[in-house]
Design goal:
alpha+beta; 7 strands; 31% helix; Acyl_CoA_acyltransferase
Length: 150
């Protein structure tokens, strides 16, 4: 059974899962990893969702305000051995619910072309491609999405 919990970026389970995420991204992103990691600092994240399976932390995601009425989805990750169970979708849906409760109108996000599983997850959950935004505007390895909430 999957249990979903809201917390913040100081949560030890979140910090531990992010270490696994960063190790995975370092391999996928290669020499571009330093560029991307500068935008993933945890101290600016106040809204974190964790997924637990039988009491073990297996997945996470976060949102942070990007601009008025827009939350940015960050730090989505599920342990490799736990993938294919719908955990990421549950985390994402809880993040969207939370953003809506906080009166945000949409969620936006960036992922990489080297992360086809993430691209599939976001498309499956109703996100659509948008032009690359902000710091990702001229980055050909980035893919950006958004979803209107409600």
């Amino acid at each position: 059974m999957i249990e979903i919990q809201r917390t913040n970026s100081e949560n030890k389970d979140f910090i531990d899962l992010v270490r696994f995420l960063d190790a995975d991204l370092a391999i996928r992103d290669g020499e571009d990893h330093a560029f991307y990691s500068q935008f993933n600092k945890l101290d600016q994240i106040n809204y974190v969702v964790l997924a637990y399976e039988d009491g073990k932390p297996v997945g996470c995601g976060a949102i942070k305000e990007y601009e008025p009425l827009v939350m940015e989805v960050k730090r989505m990750f599920v342990l490799p051995e736990c993938r294919g169970k719908g955990i990421a979708s549950k985390v994402l849906q809880e993040l969207e619910n939370w953003a809506g409760e906080l009166e945000f109108e949409k969620c936006t996000l960036e992922t990489g072309v080297k992360q086809p599983e993430a691209i599939g997850l976001y498309q499956k959950n109703g996100y659509h491609f948008i032009p690359n935004y902000g710091q990702y505007e001229d980055v050909k390895e980035s893919v950006c999405f958004e979803k209107v909430l409600g």
